[in-house]
Each structure stands twice: as structure tokens, then as C-alpha cells.
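Re: that chain you flagged

S.,

Sorry for the slow reply, it's been a week of failed gels. I finally had a moment to sit down with the sequence you sent. For the record, here it is as I used it:
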Amino acid sequence: MSTVLNISGDEHITIDTFQPGDALGVGDLFRKVYGEDYPVKLVYDPEGLVKAFEKHENIPAVARSSKGIVVGYVSIFRSAPVETVYEGGQGLVLADYREHGTFRELIRYYSEVLAPAYGADAVFGEAVCNHIYSQKAWAMHGAIETALEVDLMPGAVYAKEGTTGRVATLHMTRMYRPMEHTVYAPRQYEEAMRFIYDGFTSGARVAKATDESAEREPTSIESSHFEFAHVTRMTVRQAGQDFPAVFEEYERDALQKGMVVIQVWLKLSWPFIAGLTDWLSGRGYFFGGILPRWFGEDGLLMQKIAVRPNWEGIMLYSDRAKDILAAVREDWQRVTT
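Prediction finished late last night. Pasting the C-alpha cells below so you have them in one place:
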């Protein structure tokens, strides 16, 4: 199901599923664009790329020139707490091939071919907000904006593009297998959550969070530190009555490691989630948006930035995305003033 793009009379590009023979060319491609500085080191590891593909952990689409080089790459890969939700990203195209629709066709290929073929329930992308091109490309193939991750990436990663300041990303999701389920909205986020779910076919029914107490089971948190980006992500698997004490320990560790951004992923299937979000708000965490099917059911993103966010550097292409930004920034102002 490959696609062929004509570039000139003596050259064409083939968009196709990654094959082991592409591995060296993928590394060469990233070196031409980023040198050795791309943060996902897997792309420089031919053997690792092949193994990850065979395990369905990282499933790339590549653009091969008839001149024998890889000129474009994008992949879907596992990064969410469940294996059936893939992230789409790591996309790039050599500068000389960007005017031929190569990136747009790579997005189409993973959206229409790879994701269904490999059984994805959903595929999300973190479209950078220092420009609008990847946002528009994902939207053209059914991805819907659901969250804004403020200051996620250091500007140095995109220095060659003239970017200064940290870079936000727009969380965009395409749903492949909707599932009927109930999500519980904290009072202060109910309006924003209903707006995000409106027009997004996920099977979610929004209900008001209750005054129930947290569960009796002990809190379980998985924490990952991304030192290159100064980002910590905390996946809250279980939230018990000991949540504040457990969370404070994880947060202290992140701050001691010099993390600038802390993201917290909570389960929207918890009727008692309002108590958690109220407590986190008191510590400076603010609304980020919805993470569809993140835990099998949907998740809520909350985030804290150690410095003033680079709001002025956020570029968004759609009115829907701008409305999400407004809700996120309003909540940031609420918890920081």
C-alpha cells in the first residue's frame, strides 16, 4: 500500500512501511537535520530500530528516494500507560524534499495504514507550537486537539529553526476504536472538558465528580525524568488517602533534579478526582486537557512550570486549539495568583 510521489523527471519518492534495510538511512537522515542531538537516540541505532519494529514498540513510515536515500521519517510508538495507544511523532523531512507534500503523505500513511494495521485504539501526536505545520498535517487526517502541554520542549532542540524559549506542544488524537465509558469532571474543569469532548468521538460520557473519598488502596505513582528536556512525568496508577504524602516525595525528587516542567496524569474514571485536582491546584498545578484512552479509559493532564511559561511563543492554527489555550492559561493564572 505504498505511495509514490514524483519529484522530477529522474527522481521519485516512495512512502512505505519501515524495513530493516532502512535503518542506516534513518540515522543518516537525522544526522543531516539534527547532527547527533536528536533526543530520541533510537533513531541512531540501526539494530535497536529493527528490534523495536519487530516488537511493535516503534512502527515507522519512511520516505525513500529513488536515488537510494531515506529523505523522510515518522513513526507511531508506545509511550502511553497502555500498549494500544500509540504516539505519532519523530517526524522530519530533508529540506530539499519539503515542498512536495512528503511530510503530509507520511502522516497520511501512518494514520490510514499503519495505525489500523497494528491494532491501535488511538494515536496521538504532540504537535510543536513554534509553528503550525505539523498541527495542520495531523488535523488533515482526523486528529482532534485535546490538550496543551505547556513548555514541554527546550527551545535549543529547535534552534536551527530560529526558535527561542521553551516550546509547547498541542496534544492531538485520532480515535480508531471508541469505547463507551464515564469520565468525571471536577467542577472547575467541567466547562473546558465538555468543550473538548464536544465533537470528539471517543464514547465518553461526562459526569460531575463527586465528594467521595480517595480509595483505601495505597497510592501508586510511576515517575519518569527526561533530563534533556528538564521534564518529569508522573503517572498516577492508584490514588489512595496517602496521595499527598506520596506525591510530595516524588515532586521533591523532581525539583531536586532540576526539572522545570512536571506533568501529572490522573484517571478520569475516578469519581473522587476532584479532591486530587483541588489539592494539586493548591500546589500550583493547572489544567492541561484530556488524554483519550490513556489508561484504557481517559486521563486528565495537570502540569506545573517552575518558570513563567512562554505563552507568547505558542502558535496555534485552529480556533479550537486557541480555546483550549485560553482555558489552560486561565487556570494557570488562577493557581499562580
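What I noticed first: The mean pLDDT is 93.

Talk soon,
D.
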